[in-house]
Amino acid sequence: MFKTQFFIVGxxxxxxxxxxxxxxxxxxxxxxxxxxxxxxVMLFIFGLFPALLTMISELLGVYYLTAIFLIAFLxxxxxxxxxxxILSRLTEM
Length: 93
Description:
By secondary structure, the protein is mostly helical. The chain is 87% helix and 0% strand. The protein has helices spanning 2-24, 30-48, 50-60, 65-92. Helix 1 (2-24) packs antiparallel against helix 2 (30-48) and helix 2 crosses helix 3. It is flat and about 45 Å long.
């Protein structure tokens, strides 16, 4: 279990540092990066405290942890859809 936790925490930290570097190099705007930074912080927190994920699933009435991953996938799908809309607007300009 600890190997998986360390892996998740490590990946979240690497993604966080990469996002910050992209913002500093002006390759990623702050208004778009905020969503990714929030997702990375959540990944870090759930990596450190996996029992928190179980507690949230019980509060939501979801009894299978795979359902939480489905919810996360749907969140990322919505974010991707939002960015597609922005990209479409920029293409038209």
